[in-house]
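FAQ: What does a ligand-bound record look like?

Like this one, built around coenzyme A:
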Amino acid sequence: MTDASTQLITRRHDGSGMHVLREALLSVYREVYADKLEIPFFTVDRFWERLEAYASRDGFLLVTGQLKDELVGYTLGYTLPPGARWWHGFRGDVDPQLLEEDGKRTFAVNELMVVPAQRRLGYARALHDASLAGRPEQRATLLVRPDNIPARTAYLKWGWDKFGDLQPFDDAPMYEALMRTIKK
Ligand SMILES: CC(C)(COP(=O)(O)OP(=O)(O)OC[C@H]1O[C@@H](n2cnc3c(N)ncnc32)[C@H](O)[C@@H]1OP(=O)(O)O)[C@@H](O)C(=O)NCCC(=O)NCCS
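The answer part, i.e. the structure of the complex:
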């Protein structure tokens, strides 16, 4: 699909498509997280391990954004399985039913990134919209650091709401848990 206003070409890929794009995906990651690559959690190897785990999940989707031949960003996620581990470490005063997964109701967004030279041009928005378009789930969720102003501002503008906090691992920082309706 081509967005006339941005000239960004978005493409959808499954897990095997992700593997074909490995070098290009990692190159974007290196640029976006250049100042964090020395931190164990953020090394390129660890990042790729996480991507491979996501890609093995049901409902996995990668959406890439290209300008001519250059990959400038991407987003990816998968459908939360029944009893998903995702909600471990959740803190918030919500109806427990909200955290129950049946394997069909929630699309979890794991990554959204755009290279620094191409920001504020609407590309993240285009990737986000392309990723959620046509999803079978009712709702989507993601985690964002409260000090990640660009991402947090964008999500709140795009219809996401904070509904709690979540620490995914004991040694991980606290994130805000956001939710957005995909369809009623
Ligand atoms: C977050 C990110 C994907 C946004 O990409 P982008 O292509 O610049 O986003 P868009 O151009 O679609 O911007 C959408 C909106 O986000 C908000 N936004 C983006 N950058 C912002 C900034 N630096 N400060 C405040 N708001 C910002 C604005 O509301 C913007 O709309 P506007 O330009 O019309 O004002 C990009 O900054 C990025 O890759 N960050 C590093 C990776 C990351 O943190 N990902 C999110 C993990 S949860």
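Follow-up question: can I read anything off the structure? Yes, for example: Residues 6 and 121 are 7 Å apart (CA to CA).
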